[in-house]
Amino acid sequence: MSTYEDAGVDIAAGERAVELMKARVAKARRPEVVDDVSGFAGLFDASALLKYRRPLLATSTDGVGTKVDLARRLGVYDTVGHDLVGMVVDDLAVCGAEPLFMTDYIACGKVVPERIADVVGGIAEACTLAGCALVGGETAEHPGLLEPDEFDIAGAATGVVEADELLGPDRVRPGDVVLAMASSGIHSNGYSLVRHVLRESDLTLESEPAELGRPLGEELLTPTRIYAQDCLTLARAGGVRAFAHITGGGLAANLARSLPDTVDARLRRSSWTPPAVFAVLQAHGGIPQSEMDKTFNLGVGMAAIVAPEAADEALRLLQARNVPAWVLGEVTEGTGSAHLA
């Protein structure tokens, strides 16, 4: 006689994980969340959208990528949830959408209740920072497909923006100012290259480069800064033309996605000093600057394109929200490219 447990699936462990995460998830709510006693679906009261003249729903989905491998190797599971939320909700913020609710998906080789609770707890904490409700999720155990300590996470979120307040390239004009918002570090992109450097160089997760002042592994797991509420604050103040979430592809490529084909963005490399972790990886990995530019955020996690008369107030608002920010460059006539020089 064979059982599900013989196949490697522990239903009791899954139930234990749900119990452990309940208190943390309960904090990631909005008033519009409606409890579904069956637990099969997340419910959100759509009558909240009646206050909009023409509400546009925005949706985004993403994962954390190979950064989860470093979390697994270090046995630290409560930070990658922040990364997941940041990757998803900050994409919504680019068009000016307020994140409303999110769901998550965790696949693992073996359900370890405490580990799953840490991951989901991090997601819930980050949803609270983003003003987004965590309305549901799924944990799947895949024995034989994933090793017992392996896992991956993904999520999706829905937001809303007033149609006539939708931000994007069509609003950008020559003379606009490009503002940079500092990243907390590498965020969640470029970790395949990071892991390659760790394999091929003398660096290890336990290394303590003098430039960092702490172990490299700890630095690499620094959670993604979440900008959603910061972006919404700027948008409500007026003068914002567009945002660009700086993820895979680097600063120039992502910023170009927020430009019409009639302008360029001229970005000044001298306007900031990237966090030390980038120099450490570049030096030990022998990475050309061009490869750094197209792989990492280099210390800029989000960019805002604003009207020139709105730039000073935008910087003041970001400073008040404890987001380091500065003038990164300006918009000129061009062909839709961003140039970092």
From TrEMBL:
It is an enzyme of class 6 (ligase). It is found in: Cytoplasm. The keyword ATP-binding applies. Its EC number is 6.3.3.1. GO terms for biological process: 'de novo' IMP biosynthetic process; adenine biosynthetic process. Keywords: ATP-binding, Cytoplasm, Ligase, Nucleotide-binding, Purine biosynthesis. InterPro entries: PurM-like_C_dom, PurM-like_C_sf, PurM-like_N, PurM-like_N_sf, PurM_cligase. Residues 54-161 form the PurM-like N-terminal domain. GO terms for cellular component: cytosol. Pathway: Purine metabolism; IMP biosynthesis via de novo pathway; 5-amino-1-(5-phospho-D-ribosyl)imidazole from N(2)-formyl-N(1)-(5-phospho-D-ribosyl)glycinamide: step 2/2. It catalyses: 2-formamido-N(1)-(5-O-phospho-beta-D-ribosyl)acetamidine + ATP = 5-amino-1-(5-phospho-beta-D-ribosyl)imidazole + ADP + phosphate + H(+). Residues 173-336 form the PurM-like C-terminal domain. Pfam families: AIRS (PF00586), AIRS_C (PF02769). The keyword Cytoplasm applies. One of its GO terms (molecular function) is phosphoribosylamine-glycine ligase activity. Belongs to the AIR synthase family. NCBIfam families: purM. This is Phosphoribosylformylglycinamidine cyclo-ligase. It comes from Thermomonospora umbrina. The gene is purM.
